[in-house]
Amino acid sequence: MEKAELASTDQRSNRRSLPLPKAAPWLVIPYGKGEKFQAFYNFSEPNNTNCRKFIPELKGKSAYQKNSHQGWLIVLCDDDEFDYTPWNYGDCFLLNPLTMESIELPSFLYWYTLDGYCLSDCLLTSPPKSSSTSATLEAGNGNSMVFMLFRREGKKGKASLLFCHPGDEKWRTYMIEDIYGVGELRSMCYFKGKLYIMCFGDEHLEIEIQHELEPKIPSTSKIQVSNDVTYESMGGVLDSQILRYYVETSDEIFMIDKCFITRGVYQYCVTIMIILKLDFSTMSWVEVTSLDDHVLFISRTTRLSCSARGLGFTQGCVYFTQPNEMCFYKYALEDKSVMLSLPCPELPKPWFPPNWLMIPTTLR
Predict the structure, then answer these.
(1) What are the residue boundaries of the structural domains of the chain, listed by start?
(2) What InterPro entries has UniProt attached to this entry (predicted)?
């Protein structure tokens, strides 16, 4: 009887633990009532490994992840109709998906429900030190900082930038006000020790950060990045649309324009991707015809990359997900082809749109 009980406990523990690290991100598909369960699918495995888990820390929440996080997640309880017990609506925390260690962050509820503001992006500059050492948190957790960007809806060049060290009890706020020529503030990149806010148009922001016990933002600089790439018309000028994503790797910042038709049965059907990289020597976007060793992953709240050679690929590509779909897509830049894959076809309903999740020891 004791052995049977022990086996049952081990099974429950394994079910609540995330899969082991892989060379590429896992595709995580929430399913079940209240998004209770998660299906993990790894396309880089010879047999397309998949497993099903119950991770309460991910249930019904949004999870942001970029390369600078080095595997950590920024997890948000952002649905006012969801029962997050033992968490509350507006709570957020950092989560290490390998060790399941979590570090509480200040509530973002005030800004999330403030009239006229909209959450644009979340970012972690570097992985935090262990929360088990209180002295570490008291010392400001090194250079690790969390940022949340809330833009003013309908107000170009206006936003509130929230920031703190992991373990801090309150957010610090930096107001971005009426910077001439800057469009809507859309997303953030942390690249080679600098924070960049990418905006609509050619004007972007470079944020100076002082990493101290009391972190500060002493100044904001406007940078202009020209873009002379011309886009071919498809499906009629009024029937096509572009969604833009930024992905930073260890050596590049890529801008990905996902072009699709919004008409009839072709709604959300991606026809082509335009991929550019930021040339800091000329301060211009340069179109690329090959991603070389970069494999890029984009979904609603994640922007990741890994090595093509590490996956056994001969060239880079882009993997992406689509709204209201379980499948994922692969875009090959060289021949402009789009390949669709449907993982876990027998997954019980209801299921929800997937997200990429890296569970590594290191990120490229």
Answers:
(1) 16-128+143-359
(2) KIB1-4_b-propeller
Task: In whole angstroms, give the CA distance from residue 110 to residue 25.
Answer: 33
Per-residue pLDDT of the chain (364 residues; tens, 9 = 90+): 333 333 334 444 455 677 766 678 999 999 998 899 999 998 887 666 678 888 899 999 999 999 999 999 999 999 999 999 999 999 999 999 888 999 999 999 999 999 999 999 999 999 998 654 444 444 445 689 999 999 988 887 789 999 999 999 999 999 998 777 788 899 999 999 999 999 998 999 999 888 777 788 888 899 999 998 877 655 555 467 889 999 999 999 999 999 887 666 556 678 889 999 999 999 999 999 999 999 999 999 999 999 999 888 899 999 999 888 899 999 999 999 999 998 888 899 999 999 999 986 644 4
Annotation: CATH topology of 16-128+143-359: Neuraminidase (2.120.10)
Alpha carbons 62 and 69: distance in angstroms, whole number = 15
Structure-token pair, residue 333: 């830049």
